[in-house]
Specification:
The protein is built from nine helices and six strands; from the N terminus they run αβααααβββααβαβα. The chain is α+β, with helices and mostly antiparallel strands. The protein has two domains: 13-191, no CATH class; 215-260, no CATH class. The protein has a two-stranded antiparallel sheet with strand order 1-4. It has a two-stranded antiparallel sheet with strand order 2-3. The chain has a two-stranded antiparallel ribbon with strand order 5-6. The N and C termini lie far apart (64 Å). 32% of the residues are buried. InterPro entries: Transposase_28.
Length: 262
């Protein structure tokens, strides 16, 4: 697979333009194509590297959620060194919490996960002797680590405090004490364990991962089975491919009633 300091960027400007358009990468972060011989380690001053698969495989969008930034801050992970597998585990946890009406919390995340480090990349692995909050392991993905581009460093608040890590081992993160998390929330997430999936924009907006909501505040997405019956969010995150689920845009009934009475 190579290491983070040896893999060179193979992204083209055409591909970068397509990624920015599809995943709403704002012009304000000044996306920039690296030179063809650039590695993730050789970033311009004031920039961080971002993998293109961060958007589809890991379901994240710019601006990042507070929870995502809090996880990076706790583990002191420079964003450019986070693997797409690691980011996918963070987003899966955040999405599952939102669906279960639980506020995602770093201590709760740490009950299930600790960080790992290999070939220059950070990721997360399930803690031993703890039941998982996912029902299926992550699918593999090829050619993720040589498709990257630069964006302004401010997209990741506090990232500038974390220097590029070039050591061989990382400090062990202790498991949180029982007083640091809600055991009821732990049991709920285990009971509703779900697979790692890729989700449509409407759902990511609904759970707060994406802020690229193009509809007005009185319209929301309804996810439906083939027969038109509404699918609840717990069922939605377990369907074979959520991107193929029928999505109907619904006007909030209260506001519609008000409109009809005018």
């Amino acid at each position: 697979m190579g290491s983070i300091t040896s893999l060179k960027c193979v992204l083209t400007q055409e591909h970068l333009n397509a990624v920015c358009a599809k995943y709403f990468v704002p012009e304000e972060v000044h996306p920039q194509l690296p030179n063809s011989d650039a590695t993730m380690h050789e970033r311009p001053a004031g920039k961080v590297g971002m993998y293109t698969r961060f958007f589809d495989y890991a379901n994240y969008r710019i601006p990042f959620s507070n929870f995502f930034v809090s996880v990076l801050t706790h583990f002191r992970i420079p964003f450019s060194q986070l693997s797409v597998f690691g980011s996918a585990k963070v987003s899966h946890f955040e999405i599952l919490c939102r669906v279960c009406n639980i506020e995602p919390d770093v201590s709760l995340f740490r009950y299930f996960y600790t960080h790992n480090y290999k070939n220059g990349w950070f990721g997360f692995t399930k803690r031993p002797n703890v039941r998982a909050c996912y029902s299926k392991n992550l699918d593999s993905v090829k050619n993720w680590n040589d498709h990257f581009f630069w964006v302004d460093e401010f997209v990741v608040p506090a990232n500038a405090r974390f220097k590029w890590f070039s050591g061989s081992t990382i400090a062990k993160d202790r498991a949180p004490a029982p007083s640091e998390y809600d055991i009821g929330h732990v049991n709920t997430l285990i009971a509703h364990a779900s697979p790692f999936l890729r989700f449509p924009e409407e759902f990511l907006c609904w759970v707060g991962i994406s802020r690229n909501y193009l509809l007005n505040k009185d319209t929301y997405p309804r996810f439906e089975y083939e027969d038109g019956e509404e699918m609840d969010l717990n069922a939605f995150i377990r369907t074979a491919d959520p991107r193929k689920v029928k999505i109907v845009l619904v006007i909030c009934r209260v506001n519609q009633d008000l409109h009809d009475n005018l």
